[in-house]
Amino acid sequence: MARRHIDDSTPTNSLVMPDYTGGVRGYIPRDIPYGDPQNEAMGGVPMGDYPDDLIDPSDFKEVIQDCHDRQLFPMYHEEDHGMAVRWNQNGLPYCWAWSATIALMNIRQAAGKAAVALAPTSLGWLVNWSSSGYYLNRTIAGAKERGIASTAFVPDIHSRNPRTFVPGWEDDALKYRTGEWWDGQPGSDLHVIRQCLTILRTGSPIYLAYNWWGHALCGIGMLFDETKYLNVVFIIRNSHGEIEPIELSGNRMVPDEHYGLRMGSLAG
Amino acid sequence: MFRHPPRGAQRSAAIAACVFALCSLVFCLPAAGQDIKIVGPTDPIQAGEPAWLEITGVPDDQGAVFNLHPLLYTNPQHIVPMHGLFLTTTPGTYQITATALIVEIDWEKKTHRTTLIPLSYEVTVEGEAPHPDPPPPVDTKWQVAIFHQSDTRDTMDADQLEVCTGPLFRQELAAKGHGFVGLFDPDERDSKDGIPERVRRFFDAADGHELPVMVMAPMNGGDFRVVPLPANKTEAFKILEGK
């Protein structure tokens, strides 16, 4: 599998796509801190409430191998629905929407629901249809409230103009909503990676973001590699038109925010 | 010499008499729920034998109803109020409950007091347990749905996770002619969605069971089966294949 591999020695500038340099950050760090009851009101279950359930680092090798052998990681669900190839925000600073959307499509596949292509720009109401970045936790809450419309109702998935959407798109979006989610606890790099592997093992994708990149993405798997930081490589679906997921290692792979989507809504 | 009291005094005496009578009526009522009870057969009944139950002792202007019980028939189209027909073929002890509603009015103080009285009655059914339904044919093809609490999915071992979310289990299901309906969390039910018709009966079947469970419905129609989530996919296929 030919994946783009990024490690600590990769210059940050080379990661920023040419069409993504307009000075607009797609990812805005959370304004509601972890542990705030507002997150729970939005459906977030604090991951730190269950520290004993996190995978022990001494088990990383065995667990990661097992997740590949049994195809438990979301990357296998993504392969099954086949709609992540060339996933592309196409210059819009909507990484927060693209990554949330592919995460929802992945968890729907994990739950055995029909594969339906969803349109990230239907979340544009969160930023009043402007060319803006947004918060990840508020995006999940927005997708939980109003959902994400299918591409059948958004013919041009890069259009931020809801007048180009097919009438009825808002009702259609209600069928494709996020459910409850794990709210990742900030902490040491190892603590965050333990949470991420624990979530990924359940088949749940991770909606994550990097401050250093100003970018939101979707975590879909891990590799074990003893030559790498914390012995792991993070497999991540980017939204810059790649065919394969990217691989991140080194301390850059540790997300500044991470959320695990547990379920999608029943309808759809 | 006896003299009639003045007219005003007569009126006062009449009013006082009326008030006394009303007060007597109120205070003469039995204490709320004193004699209200469920009456039914005093001895154990045989399996399959119908038993009539009745709520007695309820004043004419008050009411009582049997609470919902799957073995008690109280349809008002066929059965008069405060009566019920109990029928089962399964021996055991069953608790039937009812609620009486007593409203006491104090006309003098212009107040009322409402009392809900819980009633309970035990029916004992004796006899032989019915023979279990014959197992479905071993070549039955099933639709399979998994119900779990998604916030506990991180505590499952890999073998059970494979049954819940693993594509390999679903591929094997399909290869053997079964179908995967989906992985569900009952908490997904909410006012916006309701339950889609295609999975409603699976939700009904899973209701009341301790999660996680595997719900199975024969492809060609028939009774649903609900079993605890198998420990691994090998166990799951043993159940599906009736082994």
Describe this structure in words.
The complex is a heterodimer of chains A (268) and B (243). Chain A has 268 residues and is of the alpha/beta class. The longest helix of chain A is centred in the middle third of the chain and has 16 residues, at 95-110. Chain A has 7 helices and 10 strands. Chain A has one domain (36-45, 56-261): Alpha-Beta Complex (Cathepsin B, Chain A), CATH 3.90.70. In chain A, a hairpin with a 4-residue loop joins strand 6 (206-210) and strand 7. In chain A, helix 3 crosses helix 4 (95-110). Chain B is elongated. By secondary structure, chain B is an alpha+beta fold. Chain B is built from 5 helices and 12 strands. Chain B is 23% helix and 30% strand. Chain B folds into 2 domains: 32-126, Immunoglobulin-like; 142-240, Glutaredoxin (3-Layer(aba) Sandwich). Residues 1-5 and 20-30 of chain B have low confidence and may be disordered. Chain A binds chain B through residues 45, 50, 53, 63, 66-67, 70-72, 76-77, 80, 110-113, 174, 177, 179-180, 182, 198-199, 201-204, 262-263, 265-267, and chain B through 150-151, 153-156, 158, 161-162, 164-168, 170, 180-185, 187-190, 192-196, 199.
Q: Topology, pairings included?
A:
The complex is a heterodimer of chains A (268) and B (243).
Chain A (H helix, E strand, L loop, with lengths): L3 E3 L20 E2 L8 H5 L2 E3 L13 H10 L4 H8 L13 H16 L23 E2 H10 L23 H6 L6 E3 L5 H13 L4 E5 L4 E10 L7 E6 L8 E3 L8 E5 L7
Parallel strand pairs in A: 1-9, 2-4, 3-5
Antiparallel strand pairs in A: 5-10, 6-7, 6-10, 7-8, 8-9
Chain B lengths: L6 H22 L8 E3 L5 E2 L4 E6 L6 E4 L5 E2 L9 E4 L5 E15 L4 E16 L15 E6 L10 H8 L1 H9 L3 E6 L12 H10 L6 E6 L6 E4 L4 H8 L3
Parallel strand pairs in B: 2-8, 9-10
Antiparallel strand pairs in B: 1-3, 3-6, 4-7, 5-6, 7-8, 9-11, 11-12
Helix pairs in contact in B: 2-3
Summary tags:
heterodimer, A: 268 residues, alpha/beta, Cathepsin B, Chain A, 8-stranded mixed β-sheet, two-stranded parallel sheet, 7 helices, 10 strands, B: 243 residues, alpha+beta, Immunoglobulin-like, Glutaredoxin, 4-stranded antiparallel β-sheet, 4-stranded mixed β-sheet, 12 strands, 30% strand, elongated, disordered N terminus
